[in-house]
Fold this sequence. Notes:
Elements: H1 10-16, H2 30-36, E1 58-66, E2 93-97, E3 104-109, H3 113-117, E4 122-129, E5 144-148, E6 156-160, E7 166-174, E8 181-189, E9 196-197, H4 207-212, E10 217-227, E11 239-245, E12 248-251, E13 261-271, E14 278-284, E15 291-298, E16 309-314, E17 323-335
Antiparallel strand pairs: 1-8, 2-7, 2-9, 3-6, 3-8, 4-5, 4-7, 10-13, 10-17, 11-12, 11-14, 14-15, 16-17
GO molecular function: calcium-dependent cysteine-type endopeptidase activity
Organism: Atlantisia rogersi (Inaccessible Island rail)
Protein name: CAN5 protein
Amino acid sequence: SSEEWKKVSSSECKSLGLTLENDGEFWMTFEDWCKNFTDVDICWIVNTSYFSIHKTWEKKMMQGTWTKNSEPLLNRSGGCFDNRDTFLQNPQWVKNHLLNHLPLLQVVFSAHGSLLALGALLTLCVDVVEDNRHYRLHKLTVQERVATSLYINTRTVFLKRILKQGRYILIPTTYHPGITTKFILRLFTDVPSKLRELKADKPKMTCWSLLCGYPRTVTQIKVHSAEGLQKQDRSGADPYVLIKCENQTVRSSVQHNTTSASFDAQAIFYRSSIDSPIIIQVWNSNILCDQFLGQAVLTALPSDPREQQTLQLRGRGSQEAAEVPGHITVRVFSSDDLVEL
């Protein structure tokens, strides 16, 4: 109804898709808008079609609940990171990240006015965890916080990050512990993320575990780096690490053209035998056949120190095998309590 629209030519109206009809669209001055509104949301429609020729995204949508329980292992309303004793009692989701891609993380909370009135500020935290973690995280030791949104009094929290190869835990939280409500977690990635909620705290006791042995010790290890490796060609080497325990193996990504590599590879093992060592091997990646560069063997007992340590690489065999060029920097945590780590 504004006289201003008469100044817009018919060709411009056509290019803008503008129709001057009583269809709910209206014009107002910026000053009037500021008097009547406080916020504006710009929505982005994410393309999830399997048949589109344009960029598409894989969508995962999960429903969750913050629930309150006096038993710490059953409580799912731990509050923000400042509540160190209860933060990891929040719901946890794990996602795989196999390739370099741009994930979009969006949390939509079904919060009503009564919840917002309590000051239930919301956020989403993203932590790197071990490549073979299948149970809930109980203690932050070697994990790295890679992303977090600001705590904000709103029904929707949006977070967008570029992530490296690895496995990540998503932890949606309220600011204060003890607040209960439902929420929805939407995750957009350009490859399948295999998003799932972590519900179990430790391995279940089964008939198979009675025959083969139930875990007695949990060990968490992080291989930070390797230095002084033997050159394999003029550019150095293409090293990667294998972390082995009992029948499990975790492999890091390959670092190219270097004899001093940063891996930051993590693994966690539930060991049925305390005598089972942790073996860390360094290999050189080749097209036809990879080359063994050295290894370190750890007892990883609960009584062993938990500080970062540097280990000399040795040949195949026991801890007393002959030394080979290079050393690795690691940090190891072991505990008889399967829900400590």
